[in-house]
Amino acid sequence: MSHALPLSARIRPAFSGFAPLSIPNYRRFAGSNVLAMSATWMQRIAQDWLVLQLTHSVAAVGVTTAMQFAPSILFGLHGGVVVDRFPRRKLLMVTQSLVGAVSLLLAITALTHTATVWFVWAAAFAIGCVTVVDNPGRQVFVNELVGRQHLKNALNLNAAVFQLGAFVGPAVAGGLIGAVGGGWAFLINAAACCVTVFMLTRLDPAQLQPVPVSPRRPHALREGIAFVLRTPAIRYSILMLAFLSVFTLTMPVLLAAFATQVFDLGASGYGLFNSLVAIGAVAGALASTRLTRLRLRIVVLCGTAWAGTLALAAFMPTVPTFGVALVASGIGSQYFFQSGNPLVQLSTVPEVRGRVISVWVLVVLGGQGIGGPIMGGIVDAIGARGGMLVAGGVPLVAGIVLSLLLARRGSLRLAVSSRRPLVAITER
């Protein structure tokens, strides 16, 4: 049986991995993102470490994660409706301004030693509310910067930029916390938000390819959910993502526990472990640009392999061997995301893209919001190694079961080939 995409969803993809950088607007956007992502990760590391210092509880770090991602559970789908209804560039300017303001408040309280765990949790929740719109807005805005022809490669490059920030940010944050305290990390993030807003004002409107905004009408949210449920490539990709988000994406909680409880390395070790994951992720994001076909079975297998590396990491006896496992997990994570995210976007028609991506973002961030306190409690109960085994083992089993289910029902795939220019979803 064949499920053809609507004609408007068919594309002629380009597979030159760095082709989007030939577009001036995208270069400006990507350049500001290098700073923005590094600063974001600096803030996240400083935020988690500040909570650990204030409470001496890994479970409290998990609550911080939950507070930041809880808004995605409560309001995430509505964020997609907002993204579909308003100009994306203006939305991003507003969201980045708000994040900068909250970061500045965190910097003031941290530098004056007046921060409380309740205030940090409130700030995390506020940033999470902004992220409900900012995250899907960023992803949809890439379409306006590069067009559908370069969409897959632009998404891969965005992931590489994000992971480059995840490599630089934790390393700088670890040194900064040890030297002068985490308050400066918050201040740097506030400044980075200002730079992002400035760069958005410098984009050339004539070179943008704006997607028409959707008019306000009833049942807009229901339309996006219905599209997800009736499109196999999206439905099964998001199902695999759900297991990974709840368990494997709670890495900050696990790495904080390994840095303090297992290897006794302190803040610098926490930053090092996050950086090792990011090294693998950068390598994986760049390597995944060579994929010329996107298939559902590849998405599921990549997710299963990623979970498997985390399960193995639980048994690594030394810092070097644990570090190797973290690099491997970073590579696996990007092969999953850079096969799954483009698969979802290329399976979506423009009119509902914001709402469909909001479902993806809801699962990514909302899963972490649910998984953060769960994994924090598990680590407090059975230790860091046991927690890591659970984080990898549960989605590993889920991936195996899903693979067997798809094999039994037939192969569902969305194929993008450099030899066959049109995209189609087939079931056999």
UniProtKB/TrEMBL annotation:
Phylogenetic lineage: Bacteria, Bacillati, Actinomycetota, Actinomycetes, Micrococcales
Record localization: Cell membrane
Alphabetically ordered keywords of this record: Cell membrane, Membrane, Transmembrane, Transmembrane helix, Transport
Domain of life of the native organism: Bacteria
PANTHER family to which the protein is assigned, alphabetical: INTEGRAL MEMBRANE EFFLUX PROTEIN-RELATED (PTHR23513), STAPHYLOFERRIN A TRANSPORTER (PTHR23513:SF11)
SUPFAM superfamilies: MFS general substrate transporter (SSF103473)
Topology in membrane: Multi-pass membrane protein
CDD domains named in the record: MFS_MefA_like (cd06173)
InterPro entries registered for this protein in UniProt: MFS_trans_sf, TM_effector
Protein name: MFS transporter
Gene Ontology CC: one annotated term: plasma membrane
Gene3D superfamilies given in the database record: MFS general substrate transporter like domains
Transmembrane regions listed in the UniProt entry: 58-79, 154-177, 238-259, 265-286, 298-316, 322-344, 356-375, 387-407
